[in-house]
């Protein structure tokens, strides 16, 4: 049984974390499997969108606390292991942003600590009604400092700080209102909703989505004048694509585009 399952349908890669007995915790093995899968997808031109889900009762319960406890047994109290763990986790999370394909989190049950970070790191997210989100490490004396990075880039400052300092959960409706997820749906509609979103993206010109995703995240870190200059250059590059020229011609001619990519 694979800890991470993948199947592809019509340009969409479906990844499912498959450690339900551990609530799909981000163990060393899970982190490695996710990193390998995302690295492979980076150069897979047949895939235009990715859906990430979890098997069993939960999407992801964060880091594997049992493994972390074992890591603490080293002579240095686990400092080297923990540094390496969080470096590996950060690399995996940031790889999602670097991928050319949009990644959609399909969330149910709970998404806590680094599991909530994983949702926040994905480009889009849909969740089932009743799903709970939290960065609740503070409840066991461990402030969720690394999950804070992605969370604070998704939701307003005071709401993020409240979640981090109280360790309280929010439900899917609240998560949607804050901007952590895009949509809340009935549990029996969750997979179909994620797939419809992925299919909609997969029908677009892949080269345009790729250059647009890269530009989206780059411009967020820039002052507004620099962002406009940068994105203007990106649009010039985009307009030079043969398929973009065809898309414009098709729109003006009221026909479907004959894209080659």
Chart the SSEs and their pairings:
Elements: E1 4-9, E2 12-17, H1 28-42, E3 49-54, H2 65-71, H3 79-98, E4 103-107, E5 110-112, H4 114-121, E6 124-128, E7 132-134, H5 145-151, H6 157-166, E8 170-171, H7 172-178, E9 183-185, H8 190-202, H9 206-220, H10 224-239, H11 242-252
Helix pairs in contact: 1-3, 4-5, 9-10
Based on the model shown, name its key terms:
three-stranded mixed β-sheet, alpha/beta, 261 residues, 11 helices, Lyase 2-enoyl-coa Hydratase, Chain  A, domain 2, 2 domains, six-stranded mixed β-sheet, 2-enoyl-CoA Hydratase, Chain A, domain 1
How is this structure best described in words?
This protein is an alpha/beta fold and 261 residues long. It folds into 2 domains: 4-202, 2-enoyl-CoA Hydratase, Chain A, domain 1, CATH 3.90.226.10; 206-252, Orthogonal Bundle (Lyase 2-enoyl-coa Hydratase, Chain  A, domain 2). It is 49% helix and 15% strand. It has 11 helices and 9 strands. The protein has helices spanning 28-42, 65-71, 79-98, 114-121, 145-151, 157-166, 172-178, 190-202, 206-220, 224-239, 242-252; strands at residues 4-9, 12-17, 49-54, 103-107, 110-112, 124-128, 132-134, 170-171, 183-185. A 6-stranded mixed β-sheet has the order 1-2-3-4-6-9, sandwiched between helices. Strands 5-7-8 form a 3-stranded mixed β-sheet. Helix 1 links the parallel strand 2 (12-17) and strand 3. Helix 1 (28-42) runs parallel beside helix 3 (79-98), helix 4 packs parallel to helix 5 and helix 9 packs antiparallel against helix 10. The chain is globular. The mean pLDDT is 95.
